[in-house]
Amino acid sequence: MKELEERIISEGRVLPGNVLKVDSFLNHQVDQRLLTNIGKEFARLFADEGITKILTIEASGIAVAAFTSMAMDVPFVFAKKTGSLNLEGDLLTSSVMSYTYQKEYAIAVEAKFLSPADRVLIVDDFLANGMALKALLAIIRQSGAETAGIGICIEKAYQHGGDEIRRLGYHLESLAVIEAMSEEGITFRPRPEK
Amino acid sequence: MKELEERIISEGRVLPGNVLKVDSFLNHQVDQRLLTNIGKEFARLFADEGITKILTIEASGIAVAAFTSMAMDVPFVFAKKTGSLNLEGDLLTSSVMSYTYQKEYAIAVEAKFLSPADRVLIVDDFLANGMALKALLAIIRQSGAETAGIGICIEKAYQHGGDEIRRLGYHLESLAVIEAMSEEGITFRPRPEK
Question: Which one of A76, B10, B44, B100 has the largest count of C-beta atoms within 10 Å of its C-beta?
Fold first, then answer.
C-alpha cells in the first residue's frame, strides 16, 4: 500500500535493536484518515473470504481492527493479555514470547465469541517473528473456527514470521513489507499488483 | 443514548463486586454498528468544542477513540501503561490506582503528541471513581493543551467520579449513567434532552 509505505518513509524512525517507530500515525498517535484507508484496503483484499469476525490482540491491534471492522461491517474481538484481565467463563488461551520485552505472556479470548461457524480475519499492526500471530492462530484452532485471512500493516520480512505463515498456506496480506532496515534507510519488498 | 442503554439491559451482566460485564459489544468483542453510532453521538455532543485531538488510555478505550476519531475526523492518541511500553523521548506521565486490580500503574504519552494549541476530547468506555480520567487530565495539563470535553460510554454514578469531574467544570457527557445496579436490575439516570 503506497500510502502506508510513504508514511513509513516520511515519519518512521529506525532505532537500535531493529525497532521501527511509527508512533506518530499507527500505534500511539493514530491517523484516522490513514487507518480508514487501511481498513478499506483489508476489506478489498479479503472481500472474497466470507469474513464473519475480526480478531486482534490488545493494545495496538485494536485500532487496526476497529477501522477494518467498520470497512467490512463485521464485529471484532481483541485477545486480552492475562494479568490485565477481567475475564470469566470458558476461555481460549495461548501464550506469546515477546521479542520486544523478552518475556512470555498469556493471552485469552472468551470462548463464546468464536464459534465453528466463524470465518476469522486476524489483523495486527506488526508482524515480525510471528509469535503473537501464532498464538492467535492457536486460539482460533481451539474454537473450531476457520482462519480465513491475516491482514498485517507492517511486516518485517527479515524476521521471517510472515513467510513461515505463508508456507503454511494461510492467506496473508501485508500492506508494507520491509526487507531491510537501518538508520540509513528502509527497503520494501515490491508491492504485488492486486 | 437509548441504543446503548438497551444493549446494557439486554446483554450486560452484573457480577459480584460491582462489575458490569459488557464484553459482548464494548470491551472484548466490539459491535462496529453500535460503536459507529457512539462515535457519531460524541461528534454531535462536542461539535462546538473545536476538538483537535482525542485522547484515551489503552486497551479498551482504543475502540471508542477509533470510532470517535472517524466520526470527528481528528487523530487520536492512546496513553500507554508503562511496563507494556516502547516509548522514548519526552514523556508526559501520571499514575492510576486501579479499582479492578487494586494496584497502581503508571501511564505515559509522548510529549510531542499534545501541544498547547490542542483542544482535547478524552474518551473512554467506563467512568467509575474517575482515577484513570484524572490521570489523563493531569497529562493534558502537563502538555499545556486544553481539555475541551470528556466523552464516556458508561458512567457508574454510584462511584461518584463523574459528578466530581462535573463539579470541577468540565464538559462531561456520559451516554449511559447507571445510578444503581444489582443482579436484579440496572437503574439509569434519566437521559437529558439534547
Answer: A76
